[in-house]
Amino acid sequence: MTLLVTGCAGFIGAKVSEVLVQHGHQVLGVDNLNPAYDVRLKQWRLHGLEALPGFHFTQLDITDRAALAAVLDRYPVAAVVNLAARAGVRPSVLDPWVYYDTNVTGTLNLLELCRQHAIAKFVLASTSSLYGDGPRPFREDQPTDRPLSPYAASKKAAEALCYAYHHLFGIDVTILRYFTVYGPAGRPDMSVFRFIRWIAEGDPIILYGDGSQERDFTYVEDIARGTVQGLDPRGYDIINLGSDRPVPIRQVIATLEQYLGRTARLDHRPTHPADVRATWADISRARERLHWSPQTSLEDGLRASVAWYEANRAWASKVSLGQ
């Protein structure tokens, strides 16, 4: 079948597009190639995708309703996988408007076009940031009405829109709450890419807090596999995709030091008020309903991330790390 994947040049979107093509689907990928982070990474991913038979790319912004409508008029699709988003907690505090434009208005545009074109399936990428400092492990049925950042609030609004369109128009919706996704060619504004780069190049690691804060790191290929499995009919469902293994940040740094053969220099900064103390996914629902569980250990995933950086160091060492 033919699927629309938004944010196809993004970290998760590129891997999901690749997996879908490998499964024999036609993928219509759209991305605006915005400079939220260094566009060279998006171009690198897109270059690999465009070599795949069955992948077709259109550059557009999901906030542009007319452009989206024109694409769907030309290419009938069976499902939409909305991976286009402005992501990141700290940057959303500085520019909340762009987060609402993309994450809320963009999602609304796609849902409305699903209604108009009788597209039965919608998958939304959401975030563990919705849980804030709630009780751990995070379960899908616990309250998420106290977001700690504009980013989390925008994703909560997108989830609410999805429910409204499911209720009113019967659109089948799967919402996937991702937990700290990492892997080769990852986002340069996230910790794993930054830590690898800083350690490899001998630059100090900017570390917010003392490094004891924990994150539920989840490998990108596991996330992509779970996202594709989310295309099965669900009615309306919210499912965590995480590793179920929170790890202290300083443990990640120590592992990367071992793989890179260098000692990190730490530049400690105060904890950001929008950051949470820890994330930890309860993935019982993913195991039960998607028959999904993570397959890649943190050690293997970090090793693959280091190998990618070393193979692409000539240009990856020059990528902007953002704010």
From TrEMBL:
InterPro entries: Epimerase_deHydtase, NAD(P)-bd_dom_sf
Keywords: NAD
Organism domain of life: Bacteria
Pfam family, one: Epimerase
Domain NAD-dependent epimerase/dehydratase: 4-242
Record-given protein name: SDR family NAD(P)-dependent oxidoreductase
Lineage: Bacteria, Bacillati, Candidatus Sysuimicrobiota, Candidatus Sysuimicrobiia, Candidatus Sysuimicrobiales
